[in-house]
Design a protein that fits this description.
This protein is mainly alpha-helical and about 120 residues long.
Length: about 120
């Protein structure tokens, strides 16, 4: 039931695909500090998830969410000064976090677009 709710919210009116959503997502992450906090939060959340899986730490199951969203929301509310897309497009936003982190790590997208050559 929760999965269907999240999936329904993710395909809310306005974006029929992730490819259509992603430019909006990037536009919500222009501030370099916000973008850096997203990449760090996504990375630490994944490492935390691996820890939970490897060590069976049931009491820490919630930590990847707290870490990932904690970093991201500080970035939005303190630095970018906008509302996280997660509230309206949770699945697409999560996908955007991973794609943006991948692009930063592979050099396709710099943390600070103003320094792009």
């Amino acid at each position: 039931v929760v999965f269907l709710f999240v999936l329904r919210m993710s395909s809310a009116p306005g974006y029929k695909s992730f490819e259509a959503f992603y430019p909006f997502y990037i536009g919500q992450h222009r501030d370099p500090t916000n973008r850096l906090l997203h990449v760090v939060g996504t990375t630490l959340a994944m490492l935390s998830l691996v820890h939970v899986i490897l060590f069976g730490s049931v009491t820490s199951v919630w930590m990847p969410l707290v870490i990932g969203y904690g970093f991201a929301w500080v970035g939005h509310f303190v630095f970018e000064k906008n509302r996280p897309a997660t509230f309206k497009y949770p699945l697409y936003s999560l996908m955007g976090d991973f794609v943006m982190a991948y692009e930063v790590y592979t050099g396709k997208r710099p943390i600070d677009e103003r320094r792009r050559k």
